Amino acid sequence: MRSSNPVFSRRGFSRDNNGYAGFNAPPQAGGPAANPYAGTNPYAQGGNPYAQGPTDASAQGTQAPQYAPQTTRPMTMDDVVLRTGMTLGTVIAGAAVGWIFLTQSLGFAIGAGLIAMVLAFVQSFKRKPSPALILTYAAFEGLFLGALSGAINDLPKLSGAPMQAVMGTMAVFVAMLVAYKTRIIRVTARFTRYLMIALLGFVLLSLVNVLFMAFGGGDGLGFRSGGMGILFGVVGVVLGALCLALDFKQVEDGIAYGAPREESWLAAFGLTVTLAWIYMELLRLISILRD
């Protein structure tokens, strides 16, 4: 199962034969092996002593594998929550600095946003998560969001909009978590395929709109104001929310398969990227509605 999150979709908890295999075949109940993860667990191949795997030779029809000495424990939900809290805390700290000191320096804020984008792409293409790189990304992302939010908040018509966007982002996260845990939303191959198609269309339309704005002036295709802007903003928020479900699935699979603890940094990074996207879409949508 591949997430639409640009972090998870590039590598997620999935690697080639030189590392961890991909999660293309989630464990199915009632399979031929006694252990539901037998034959599909990517972490059972790398000498991971904590990986879920057959406990006896009869489960595979051959001699049970001998694991290497223990080197790391598997990722747990506590690890994901802790790293996500650290990453989001860094974003909030950076946002506070941007709000206080950079509101009148939007050029610097845009530079911080570009740096954050570059760092995000660098981490996405790295084979292993880098805590220092992830936290640095979070700091620059926070500077950008804080400065932009402060500038918007200073506008008379939009005062309070950033706080509304923050509350909306929290509400979306909680709602999607409840929907995922209660299986109201089920992340299946069809769900992922359709969401990826919708995301591709959304990104392409956004790029076309930017080109029209750059060369034609004004609001381009009208996706940033008026009724079309509201519709486009709602679609962006919905797609971001659905991406959270895919991120939850990746985390759940990583824990079930016994992913190494360091992968919790990747989970935190992916969730942070998605939440930042949802916040930006909500902030834009609220700005259009209140302007």
Beta-strand percentage range: under 5%
Mean pLDDT: 80
Number of distinct beta strands:
0
Number of helical regions: 8
Largest sheet: none
Helical fraction: 55-70%
Using only C-alpha atoms, the radius of gyration works out to 21 Å
Account of the 3D structure:
This protein is mainly alpha-helical and 291 residues long. Helices cover 62% and strands 0% of the residues. It has eight helices and no strands. Helix 4 (131-153) packs parallel to helix 8 (263-290). It is globular, with a radius of gyration of 21 Å. The chain starts with 5 loop residues before the first helix and ends with a helix.
Features:
mainly alpha, 8 helices
SSE map:
Layout: H1 6-10, H2 77-101, H3 106-125, H4 131-153, H5 161-181, H6 189-216, H7 226-256, H8 263-290
Helix pairs in contact: 2-4, 2-8, 3-4, 4-8, 5-7, 5-8, 6-7, 7-8
Care to give the gist of this entry?
Helices cover 62% and strands 0% of the residues. The protein is an all-alpha fold and 291 residues long. The two termini are 41 Å apart.
